[in-house]
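Each lists sequence, tokenised fold; shown next:
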Amino acid sequence: MQRSRGAGGLDGLPAKRYDRDVVKKQRLDVMLTERGLAPSRARAQALILAGKVRVSAEVVSKAGTQVTADSLIEVEAPDHPYASRGALKLAAALDAFGISPEDLDCLDVGASTGGFTDLLLERGARRVIALDVGRGQLDWRLRTDDRVVVMEGVNARLLEEDSLPFVADLAVVDVSFISLRLVVPPLLTHLAPAAWLVCLVKPQFEAGRGQVGKGGIVRDESTRREAIDDTVRALQNLDLELVGIVPSPIRGQKGNLEELAVFRTPTEDSK
């Protein structure tokens, strides 16, 4: 994990040091935004929750923490070139099954800061719909890229037939606090025949409430396996062909072991 002072903070943002301003207290997420360490409060909150922000050399994990204006605030630099480490998760699936986004129309559901979108563009995607129920999280570099169609404040679960500007050849899904069983069905009308569908399966959001431990972690391996397998089977029942499953190379934010399931939609002939 890189640390940076002066130029070169996390996600291309400068890590800055502020020593002596008027001494007053302010919310940490607000201060990050005002100092240019994050492009929005939503992004600032995401950085804080991810443990990427230090105040006077101490990691602070609550966005509402009151800090003084003369505090030293640092944002850790990433150990990868993407908008978020999520890109590394998607790369594992694309590489495992030889999937190339080159010249494909793509859909990123749960885009957040844009790690998946970033990787798709780097690998030659023609254009990407970056869709998220939240607002203000997508990296500014991606937000201003002509190849990206930004769709914020959109609940994927409520998509209708004419909700999206184009049909996707490749869709990637990384959602939280909702099951893939609820998100994937509305997506299918927006996917081309023989399209790729890559889903990050998070056991903490697929297992029953009584099976998720303290802190949102699924510690029991049999429970984790069952949650993932049941979800994959449910998606297969939507007439999706399972290509394969690979473990995520990176644990989830709270330490959960996640997996990427890769599917294909039916071909034109098989419909």
In short: The chain has two domains: 10-75, 86-264. Residues 10-75 form a domain with the Structural Genomics Hypothetical 15.5 Kd Protein In mrcA-pckA Intergenic Region; Chain A fold (CATH 3.10.290.10). Residues 62 and 232 are 34 Å apart (CA to CA). The chain has eight helices and twelve strands.
